[in-house]
Structure formats: C-alpha cells, structure tokens
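Quick start: read one record
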Amino acid sequence: MKHARANIRTASARRALPELAPAVPPVKTTDPIVAREIQPVRKASKPPSTEDLGNIKTTAMSFRNMHEHGDLLVKYMEARKKIFIDRLKWHVPQNDGLEFDQYDTPFCQWVVLHEFGEVIGGVRLVPTNAKCGIYTYMLRDAQAGLLQDLPTDVLFFKAPVEAGIWEASRFFISETVPAKRRRVVQSMLFGAMNDVAKENGALFILGIVPYVWARWARRLDVSATPIGAKFDIEGTQSQSVLFNTSSLNS
C-alpha cells in the first residue's frame, strides 16, 4: 500500500477500510483532547427484522476461546485474504491462504459474522494499551513512523494509551453478501463490534475509515468525530475517526 496526501474530491468507496461503530453522549476519559472531541450521535431508528437477519450468527473470538469454534478463525483469516489481498491488493502478510499481521495477538478480539458456516463479515479490536515487541496498535505505530503505508500525522493529537480506548481494524463485509442485505449486515456488525468492545471495558473506539464515511453513516443513522487529516491509501481518501461506544441493538 502507498499513501499520499490527497486534495482530489472523489475516491473509490469500494476499497473498504475499517468502518466503525456509532457513538453515544460523552463519557469520562483521562485524555482531555479525546474528551473534547467526542460528540453525541443518534441511534439507528429501525432495527433489522428477524427475517432480514436470516441465519446470521455473531461470534467473538480470542486466543482464549478460539478452540471452542472449530475452524471459524481459519475461515475468518481466509476471508480477510480474499478481501484485503486478492481484491484490494494490499501488501500485508499472508501464508497458507491466510491474511494476518503483527496485531493479531492475544490482545485481540475478533468479531465474526457467519451464516451456514461461511464468514460474511468481521472486524478486529485491539486495546490501545496493547504492546507486543515494538508494536502497539496501528494508528499509534503509524504516528511513531513504524508503518510505511500510513502517514505519521494520521492523528491530530498524541495517540492515546488507555484500557478504555480500543482500535478497530480489518472491518469487512464479504462480496458474497447481496446488495439488498448489505445494510442489515453492516448494522449487525457495527452493533456486535460495539457490544464486544463495551464488554471488554472500551469507552471509545477509534480507527481509519474512508473519507466518504459520512455517506454510509447517514444510511445507518450514526456519526463519528474526525480526529485526523484526510490522506490517501491506494486511491482511497481516508481519515481517522473516533466513536463513543453504545449498543445499536438495545
């Protein structure tokens, strides 16, 4: 992946970068800059019907419980390869048909949507106080100059290191999901990600989204606060954003 500052007005939304969860009114944080940036958002006005959801299941996996879910983690990483390497042509690690990187560690929570044994979506969550060797989490490592594919000014402020702030990455919806179901699947993955983050103590979620995030956010009736300048990754204008955690499904 190559990055560059971009001033062009359009970008390809099909190159999906992490899309994150919606927010709720401000919550206390020890970071004054983060606290000032948070804005309240709306909840989805109409939850998906049982018929819309079909037979979709949600599973949150970690190193501690992945043995309880058969080959689901393997299928999830195979699905990531199909999206991020085969389709988007990202230059990220792969082996034996699996996509992974230095952030797939025991600090992770992998949230996976699956139906009839097939993975149809997923997202990775990592706490911002994680550290494995020289690496912490994607945005902080980018700011430190450890990731050549991301700019060092990806955030307006110093990357937080707090147990209550988590990063979401590798958000995807499978191409096998038909257009008429994509909004429902997106909404379900947003909600599941939010629930898992909250269960693990997250007050906020941050990550990178396409610069056109406001378009799909309006469709899902959610919003977020930009916390970084616009930049370009392989033709996609992107931006770091921050969300409060809330339950879409409550």
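The chain is about 25% helix and 25% strand.
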